[in-house]
């Protein structure tokens, strides 16, 4: 795996680590003898739909994601995330709506809205954050696909469930150069 020296860790990791420590200590010593639910014991983060309550969403707005360096160069490792929109008659088929790639310092290398080839039925704004106005000046799929291919070629690609993102981009990447957090055992507990 990729290991950065301790001093170069992105400050966002430290913030997350502190938040996790706080949540763990709160769950270990419940107030007024309240019994801790099993789901809380298994996972500090819980299910995605339960995670962002009003308190935590306010906390997220207050903590900006700050790159650990001003270095915007193309590094040996990059991280990618894609957002999908719903296409097809029922909107249940996913198509690429946005792709973002950052370098190992957290600086944005690529952040493009993508005009899908099919008609969009569901923007999935609550999940994707994509609104109709975002796609008015979106780039076409082929141009974005080439830009992403040039950016990730010969580099270690980091992300969560990357097979979905690569499928949406109609691309592949060498398995030896993929670091997928959805398959990283310590996070699978």
UniProtKB/TrEMBL annotation:
One GO biological process this protein is involved in is: rRNA processing
Q: Which residues form the Exonuclease domain?
A: 76-189
Instruction: Read off the InterPro entries from this record.
Output: REXO1/3/4-like (IPR047021), Ribonucl_H (IPR013520), RNaseH-like_sf (IPR012337), RNaseH_sf (IPR036397)
For the region Disordered, what residue ranges are annotated? 27-51
Cross-referenced Pfam families: RNase_T
**Alphabetical keyword list:** Hydrolase, Nuclease, rRNA processing
Q: Name one GO cellular component term.
A: nucleus
Q: What does this protein do?
A: Exoribonuclease involved in ribosome biosynthesis. Involved in the processing of ITS1, the internal transcribed spacer localized between the 18S and 5.8S rRNAs.
Query: What protein does this entry describe?
Result: Exonuclease domain-containing protein
* Phylogenetic classification of the source organism: Eukaryota, Viridiplantae, Streptophyta, Embryophyta, Tracheophyta
């Amino acid at each position: 795996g990729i290991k950065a020296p301790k001093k170069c860790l992105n400050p966002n990791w430290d913030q997350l680590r502190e938040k996790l420590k706080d949540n763990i200590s709160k769950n270990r010593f419940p107030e007024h003898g309240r019994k801790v639910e099993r789901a809380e014991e298994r996972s500090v983060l819980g299910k995605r739909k339960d995670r962002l309550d009003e308190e935590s969403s306010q906390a997220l707005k207050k903590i900006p994601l700050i790159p650990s360096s001003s270095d915007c160069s193309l590094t040996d490792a990059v991280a990618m995330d894609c957002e999908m929109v719903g296409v097809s008659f029922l909107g249940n088929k996913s198509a690429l709506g946005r792709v973002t790639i950052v370098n190992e310092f957290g600086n944005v290398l690529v952040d493009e809205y993508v005009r899908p080839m099919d008609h969009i039925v569901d923007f999935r704004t609550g999940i994707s954050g994509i609104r109709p106005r975002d796609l008015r000046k979106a780039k076409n799929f082929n141009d974005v696909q080439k830009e992403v291919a040039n950016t990730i070629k010969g580099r270690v690609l980091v992300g969560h469930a990357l097979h979905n993102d690569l499928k949406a981009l109609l691309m592949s990447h060498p398995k030896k150069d993929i670091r997928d957090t959805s398959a990283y055992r310590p996070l699978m507990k």
